[in-house]
Amino acid sequence: MPVGDDVSVEEHLRQLADRLRGPRRLRTDLMTEARHGLLDTVEAYRDSGLTEREASRRAVAEFGTPDQLAPAYQAELAVAALRGLSLRVVAFAATAAIAGDLTWRGSSWSSGPRPPAGYLLLSQSVEWIWVGALLLGLTGLTLVTATARSARPGLTSLARSVGVALTGAAALGALTGAGLFGWSILLWDAALTWPPMIIGLLAAGAAHVWLGRAARTWLLAAR
Hints:
The protein is mainly alpha-helical and 223 residues long. The protein has helices at 9-17, 24-47, 52-63, 66-104, 117-149, 153-187, 195-222. Helices cover 81% and strands 0% of the residues. The longest helix has 39 residues, at 66-104. The two termini are 23 Å apart.
């Protein structure tokens, strides 16, 4: 849409909003701020003697086209999405490290025969995946702070890479965790009736959905 087109403030904002992807609350806040700015400009032009239509046209032209404005808005949304994803991964990884052992403590099979080597390897892999995800999450939070102070392309590219790695780590953690739970049930029938195991399974499932939503938001904001 050329800048000079005769278009209302609300239509102009709708066209801009349609181009944006990212955290809903921030997207709403950005659009509210833009609306207030545009309406203030319209009011200023009206006070100078212009008609409502001409004041709206000039305000929209001065504001810029959606294609011109969208990249800056989208960059801010991508940073916010990375912050949200990083925070959720850090929270999940820290909680899983504490709660993981509690799932098994006191179980009827914990004093039985040692599990197969493959099971132990998978269990250790899950732990290391989330340790790596925790470090990536902390790196993501550091980069969010850094990009807020500097718009250097190198930082933006690095933040994007960390976001990709976080998404991959969350997906890999979910797959290996599900495999570990499934293998545990095959090895120990009592696991199906062990309350900490049941609670852990439900909590982990809900947490992975929570992480998945944050990852999806980041992917949409960053692409």
